[in-house]
Amino acid sequence: MPQSPSLFSADSYFSTQPPPSGLEHDISGVKEFVRRQKEKGRNVVLVTSGGTTVPLELNVVRFLDNFSAGTRGATSAEYFLKAGYAVIFMHRQFSLQPFSRHYSHSTNPFLDFLEIEPGTNMQPSSDVSDPGSMSSQICVTPNKRKDLLEVLTAYKAVHAAGTLHTLTFVTVNDYLWLLRAVSQELSVLKRKAMYYLAAAVSDFFLPRQKMSEHKIQSGKGSLHIEMDQVPKILKPMVDDWTGKDGFIVSFKLETDPALLVPKAQISLERYGHQVVIGNDLNRRKYEVVFISWKDALPPSSKGPNSDLSNPRYAESWLKIDPHDHNKEIEEDIVAELVKRHKIWITGAEASTK
Amino acid sequence: MPQSPSLFSADSYFSTQPPPSGLEHDISGVKEFVRRQKEKGRNVVLVTSGGTTVPLELNVVRFLDNFSAGTRGATSAEYFLKAGYAVIFMHRQFSLQPFSRHYSHSTNPFLDFLEIEPGTNMQPSSDVSDPGSMSSQICVTPNKRKDLLEVLTAYKAVHAAGTLHTLTFVTVNDYLWLLRAVSQELSVLKRKAMYYLAAAVSDFFLPRQKMSEHKIQSGKGSLHIEMDQVPKILKPMVDDWTGKDGFIVSFKLETDPALLVPKAQISLERYGHQVVIGNDLNRRKYEVVFISWKDALPPSSKGPNSDLSNPRYAESWLKIDPHDHNKEIEEDIVAELVKRHKIWITGAEASTK
């Protein structure tokens, strides 16, 4: 079947769409980070987070976006760091990040818990560049100190250990080029590399050749946008970029609950990676389902939830109490994946003995 | 000429699209805020800021967005507050806000300038709910204190005076309903109300009747989106909602420099408000043009820049040094508008004597 000119494979995508300008710089940063982690024998997880955009014009005024604050990715990254992983956090610019996520300027602005204490030294400061040292002090509201100290301590520990590397993307084009490059760099870690693909990636895009240079002028009645499908990159990721050894976890977000498990199973079957985590848009903060290969299922996870009508797949539901505001489901998601990744690594080591 | 079913006037828009759920609550908050400012005889400016979205599905996964960090609006709001105005800051949820804008988690994360100082008290804390008081202290890095103190002081003064009221929108539907309601509340202030419309509003939208409930499924080849024009609300705003007395400032953003002044003039002519501020996407941080009515031009602004080929309009360019990183163009934009607003108010007072 001849390919329509607007049907992109991964290969035709990369040969027709231009790489983002910062790519080489990003690659060398990742190369160095991965080298250091390899020396220390650490596991590394690539966490992707936030939505990708599809600009409609070259001088970007309008764009198509995917709804994603980045909560799943930013929260999971914190738990991976806590579990001793090094993390490459590849996120949508300005979306949530580990640690600072607790202090959103909209919902928990840090300016609200800083106090000004007048200074005790009555002499005017002789140091005009730093009056603060002689007069007013800034301190933290007492009832906020404990939580802030906990976050700040973890933040500083991660920075001191050098276990967090941060990259940003905006457009789906940035994302695809960066994902391929980072995967290729991580492939040297073989089975010690995990890929946690929580980003909300555009399904459709406007090829550069179809984009207008200037702002599309309104006043012409209705607006018609015709877009092409973004190539499915899980296939080359599994078969090629990650060197076939990576532990790959993808996500499926659905709004119709009836489609969730079937579509997650289809995805696993089609790409042959390790885990698909399915979530319903309206229940995702307290409920997810793990779809994986039955053969690779650790005995502890087998249970009454296994779907006997689909013998190839294991289906395992993870739920927390929706009303427990001190619990984040990502803690359990990450714990489960760390367990499964350990088995994945050990399996490779066992087979090389 | 019969109206095509997909051509919306402002009236047909509000009679067919549902109001956002928080609207009544928002209106009562604004009503109370305006009442307090009227008592104190303050000028009030409505600052709109950030981009509006057009959801493509009712269970929102994808949406069309307008590029806008909210820099113009958030920065201008700070200068209006400094100039003694009360401000209603109506912004895109999670976009930049006055004061916290200086501490973007991406470019200037506040966690980077907090230090942990070990406590001097060697006894374990007897107060388990507040160990911070007995052990570690959190303080601000010395070379960051001066700037933070300045922002924090202004922030607290504004909160103490109650001169800042914050509202949020996400969709263009939220925005239109809220803009109408807030304008109607502000109309009691007559000429003391200014409207600074810096938000990047969608030109096209999907009427509720055309939206699908569930996530549009990819895998069907290409995606076609057909959208209708958003009604131009400047007309009812000028003629109706603001009671004809508001000082209305709109913005025009263009990517083609040749279109900037002509389109700004067309806008002023079409709607009959007070000022159109034109900006070129690539030059907007250091250059804007004020288009206004020649008759209403204060003598001090007349100058060699007036466009003699367009006798009805005055054209006044405002430029700053692009390399001066300590200068924000919004300081001058606001200063100029405060001047013009004063004349607007005085003009009314003079005519009532």
UniProtKB/TrEMBL annotation, chains A, B:
Pfam families: DFP. It comes from the Eukaryota. Residues 1-22 are annotated as: Disordered. Residues 1-16 have a biased composition (Polar residues). Keywords: Ligase. Belongs to the PPC synthetase family. This is Phosphopantothenate-cysteine ligase. The lineage of its organism: Eukaryota, Fungi, Dikarya, Basidiomycota, Agaricomycotina.
